[in-house]
């Protein structure tokens, strides 16, 4: 095993141990377990954004539409169909996938800023639908629902058990994401990001690849949204809003787009920073925004991306090899999936 891969594996194991011990550590730091759960779920949501912005090269400024569809998909099926825990999550993911199937063909007609603007517009359509259909969604006030029992039991997971379930989802999505970006499909996405015109000349149907990436991103985002709805037992239109999309993009860029662990770092800073500052001062958005400005100026490629580049310069190739584990590699022509 190469040194870089070993270092990445050790870092992942250390992070996993810390996350397992979080329910014991959080009270010492005066953090509620629900905040720690939010970190994991927002990290999953940012991972979905990372697939598009960090590996495919499109700007998903409407990805919260899938997050909100996941939350509403879980909440509405619980309220009207009385489905159980994992079924509600699955139906939330399905709702997000249906949304992606509906808007995906329209998004693929454009690239660059036009793709982003269309994405925002479609996201706002879902927002206004949730806002207007008061009898179904609760409108501006949102909708409350109980956390259902797990299939085959009479057990509705409390916050402590719920955290470990979300940790399981986080680990599973992280492993699948790592395998995806190292696969021929993932390297083809990287080739599209680097030079879409050249990828087309190599025989790639770039529209098809971007559409599949959008569906995968929607499924991950829907999972995060459904679980977040179950976490707070609430769904409201703001979960679909473009401001929420901006938060996910900010987390991704802050931690380091195009890296495996970057979304988690960005989510950790965003959620913990928001929780601490909002409980301390009423105008907490100002210092939080200043913190983001400092991080962006000090870490132009995101925190993890900048650290990897610094390691590459200091150790002569370590950072470049570490991308196999932490960052993803640039595809060669032989690695691209036709």
Report on this model:
- This protein has 16 helices and two strands.
- The chain is mainly alpha-helical.
- It is globular.
Label this structure with key terms:
338 residues; mainly alpha; ABC transporter involved in vitamin B12 uptake, BtuC; two-stranded antiparallel ribbon; 1% strand; globular
- Counting DSSP H or I runs of 4 or more residues, the number of helices is 16
Strand order of the largest sheet: 1-2
Beta fraction of the residues? under 5%
SSE ordering: HHHHHHHEHHHHEHHHHH
From the alpha carbons, calculate the radius of gyration and give it in angstroms. 20 Å
Question: What does the largest sheet look like?
Answer: 2 strands, antiparallel
Whole-Å distance between the termini? 29 Å
Give the CATH class.
Mainly Alpha
CATH architecture, please? Orthogonal Bundle
- The proportion of residues forming helix, as a percent range, comes to over 70%
List low-pLDDT spans: 317-330
Can I get a quick summary?
This protein has 338 residues and is mainly α.
What is the topological layout?
Blueprint: H1 3-20, H2 22-25, H3 33-56, H4 64-81, H5 85-107, H6 113-132, H7 134-137, E1 143-144, H8 159-182, H9 184-194, H10 196-201, H11 206-232, E2 234-235, H12 242-255, H13 262-280, H14 285-298, H15 303-315, H16 318-327
Antiparallel strand pairs: 1-2
Helix pairs in contact: 1-16, 3-8, 3-11, 3-12, 3-13, 4-5, 4-6, 4-11, 5-11, 8-9, 9-11, 12-13, 15-16
């Amino acid at each position: 095993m190469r040194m870089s891969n070993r270092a990445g594996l050790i870092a992942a194991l250390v992070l996993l141990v810390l996350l397992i011990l979080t329910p014991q550590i959080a009270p010492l730091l005066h953090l509620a377990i629900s905040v720690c759960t939010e970190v994991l779920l927002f990290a999953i949501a940012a991972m979905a954004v990372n697939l598009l912005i960090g590996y495919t090269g499109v700007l998903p400024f409407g990805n919260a539409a899938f997050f909100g569809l996941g939350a509403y998909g879980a909440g509405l099926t619980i309220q009207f169909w009385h489905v159980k825990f994992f079924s509600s999550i699955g139906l939330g993911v399905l709702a997000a996938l249906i949304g992606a199937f509906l808007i995906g063909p329209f998004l693929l007609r454009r690239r660059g800023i036009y793709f982003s603007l269309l994405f925002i517009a479609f996201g706002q359509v879902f927002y206004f639908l949730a806002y207007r259909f008061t009898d179904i969604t609760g409108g501006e006030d949102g909708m409350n629902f109980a956390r259902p029992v797990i299939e085959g039991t009479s057990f509705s997971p409390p916050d402590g058990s719920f955290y470990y379930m979300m940790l399981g989802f986080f680990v599973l999505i992280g492993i699948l994401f790592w395998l995806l970006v190292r696969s021929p499909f993932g390297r083809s996405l990287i080739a599209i990001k680097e030079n879409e015109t050249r990828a087309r000349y190599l025989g790639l149907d770039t529209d098809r690849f971007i559409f599949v990436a959008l569906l995968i991103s929607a499924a991950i985002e829907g999972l995060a949204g459904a679980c977040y709805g179950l976490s707070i037992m609430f769904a409201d239109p703001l979960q679909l809003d473009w401001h929420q999309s901006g938060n996910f993009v900010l987390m991704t860029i802050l931690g380091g787009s195009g890296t495996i662990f970057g979304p988690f770092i960005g989510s950790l800073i965003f959620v913990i920073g928001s929780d601490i500052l909002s409980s301390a001062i009423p105008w907490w958005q100002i210092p939080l925004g200043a913190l983001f400005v400092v991080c962006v100026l000090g870490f132009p490629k995101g925190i993890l991306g900048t650290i990897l580049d610094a390691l590459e310069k200091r150790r002569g190739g370590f950072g470049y090899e570490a991308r196999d584990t932490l960052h993803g590699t640039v595809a060669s022509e032989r690695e691209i999936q036709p």
